[in-house]
Amino acid sequence: MESMVAVKKETKKTKGNEITVALVGNPNSGKTTVFNNLTGAHQSVGNWPGVTVEKKEGKININGEVLRIIDLPGTYNLGNYSEDERIARDFILFEKPEIIINIVDATNLERNLYLTFQLLEMGARVVLALNMSDELKIKQMNIDSEKLALLIGKPVVPTVAIHGEGLNELLQEVLRESKKKDLRSFAVDYGKEIENEIINLDHHLLLNPSWENSDKSRWFAIKLLEGEMNTLQKLVKNLNIERFIPIRDTAVKRLENLLGEEVESLIAERRYDFIQKIVAQAITRKETSEAQLSLSDKIDRIVTNRYIGIPLFLFAMWALFQFTFKVGDPFIGYIEGFFEWLTGVIEPWLVGLGASELLRSFVLDGVIGGLGSVLVFIPNIFLLFLAISLLEDSGYMARAAYIMDRFMHTLGLHGKSFIPFLIGFGCNVPAIMATRTLENRRDRLITILINPLMSCSARLPVYILFAGAFFGAHQGLVIFSLYLMGIVLAILMGIVFKKFLFKGESSHFVMELPPYRLPTLKNTWIHIWGRLSSFIRRAGTIIFAVVILIWVLSNLPAGVEFASQESFLGRIGSALAPIFKPAGFGTWQAAVALLFGVLAKEVVVGTLAVLYGIAELGLSESLIVHSWTPLSAYAFMVMTLIYVPCVATIGTIKRETNSWGWTLFVVAYTLILGWLVAVLIFQIGKYYGLG
Amino acid sequence: MEQNEISIVFLKPGSYAMVKDIKAGIGLRRRLEELGLVRNQILKIIKNDCGPLIIMLGESRLVIGRGAAFKIFVEEIKK
Question: Are B29 and A264 an interchain contact pair (Cβ–Cβ within 8 Å)?
């Protein structure tokens, strides 16, 4: 909410030289790259109020002027049918940015111009960035940007955003355009019949006493024909749009009788006709044989092949995880080593200062321990983000969604939901962030709700400990069974949610397959850094706060032995322990370990070690002594698999759904489900004497 | 529906067709229209064996789930 208020204040004040510039463009047009290159590291990421789409904003200085650049969500259209387009459109209409930079994929000009023409019809001040213009040569196409500029009446600047080319010229055009006083209007020719109706409606609109935005009356007339009454009403306060509905309906009937098609489709058709006529004048293509396949198509022949596709994909995923964890582990070692060294340095220093034991414990166990528990994630998370970034930017992600679409249908979802699940096996945080690509809110929510059931890598240490201690030679099988259980439960819960929580039609799988592209180092880095820094900030503050809290609870009441049964923590554990009795692990240590596990799953093992009072090496043996059995161990692992996602994930869910309701729902249902399944397994096992 | 109108799900890879009609609700129609699937546009079927179809429309490649593809009616063009 705060950032939106700040935006409103600034546009109302129009601080001196500050010019608001919005970036608009199709997905895959390189818009984000343009934004990243223009704003570099000086950007802030937030949320559009009430919605779940990332809002990026940055400021730059050029020629002594300050430009405030807002990256609007990628969209194909400015209608009313998806959150993305509503956000983009509302921003343009209500925040009224001075200039709009429309980023267009030069290799796909016609489709991209559909959006451009919407902007032009709105009367926006547009500067066109003809991006990816280096790829035109490969396709043996040439675009005369000056001709195009003449035809649409707006400046056109060829750019190659990934290399930073053309961006300076782009900004110069933006500044130039911002100084222009006259606004040339632009009109699409919709054909005789529709034009007649538009003129008629326009006439009627203007008959009324002057209303806000009446200079856009032609645009209003077109939107009326398209049936967008709600949008229009939001825009004009002193005009009752409802009065025009009868006139509009007659006009629509007339057109549909005359031309035999729905008005909205007709309008879309005529737009494309008009676009194609314009583009034909600015583009030259060399004669190519249609049979020639592009490199992307050739790669796709293999990648999406019905027999090779899935195995290839599974191999790629396996390689990805190997990479993330094999390469990341040594770095984790370094970080742990660093913290050990830090402790070794600070402890004697504190003692030297005469600090009380409590203060020492606070600094060492609390602050440094807390920081350590957050930072220890970073190598793996960084590599995971790197891998995800590469998969997305290269275009392979889209193929993955295609390949796994059939499997996703069993959950009532489609291909695009697959990617977050995959990432979830590594870490739920980036997985949930990845659900942004799902346009349908229902699909997105379901995907987020069942994501925590994908066993993330942090739970693995728990499995290894218990499976190793109690199942010896069969530990691999046991651990595999847990992963499988997670998947099965995710499928079941997905079906349940779809049936009972979100009734309605399933959405259609319609997705653009971008050509394969080689990601550049610079852009990948900017991509990762943005996500990584916001992850650290969010997860860091939450986890850090919880660590301090747990430290406090372990040390009170005063004088108690650290993390003993008499401390508050131990008492809480003892209070909770009975709940877990039916599940086979009703000890206060287990309860405390699970509690710690809420902040980070890896911590469960370390906690048990502390609580049983021995070094981790001896933990397996101690477990057997302390009344753990194979059955109770398995039940405990199941509980770890299912119950409450870690605090970082909870924080991410809250941010992505923008709703405490859903966040608490996830916490509640995973807790209950985990308990139920653990109890079920233990009780059934005991009944059959597997005890 | 005219006689030579057929849903794209029945076309083989490599075939060309001209879009005639999209028999779907406004939501899907808008979604497809904004991607360029309007009457008289020419598309090419790239893949149509199992799972969603892949078509070429102008310069873009689109993945279209079978359910949606079923509603896209075209007239095949022999080239």
Answer: yes
CA distance B14 to B11: 9
| Structural domain that includes position B33 | 5-77
- The CATH code belonging to domain A192-285 is 1.10.287.1770
A515: chain B residues, CB-CB within 8 Å: 61
pLDDT tens digits along A637-652: 999 999 989 887 888 8
* Nearest CB neighbour to B34, from listed A77, A107, A402: A77
Which residue ranges does chain A devote to CATH 3.40.50.300? 2-179
Tell which wins on pLDDT, B38 or A620.
Answer: B38
Q: State how many domains chain B has.
A: 1
Chain B residues contacting A via beta carbons under 8 Å: 22, 26-36, 38-41, 46-47, 49-52, 54, 57-65, 67-68, 79
The two tokens of residue A204 are 């009627």
**CATH fourth-level superfamily of A2-179:** P-loop containing nucleotide triphosphate hydrolases (3.40.50.300)
pTM, to two decimals:
0.79
Q: How confident is the model at residue A404 (pLDDT cuts 50, 70, 90)?
A: confident
Can you name the residues that pair with A512 across neighbouring β-strands? B62
CB-based contact A406 B62, cutoff 8 Å: no
Measured between CA atoms, how close is B4 to chain A, in angstroms?
18
- Average the pLDDT over each of A7-16, A51-60, A461-470, B49-58 and give the range with the smallest value: A7-16
Q: Which residues pair with A66 in a beta bridge?
A: A61
Residues of B in contact with A272 (CB under 8 A): 36, 38, 41
3-class SS of residue A240: coil
With an 8 Å Cβ cutoff, are B64 and A76 in contact? no
Query: What is this model's ipTM?
Result: 0.94
Enter the DSSP assignment of A283: E
**Pair of tokens at residue A296:** 């992307």
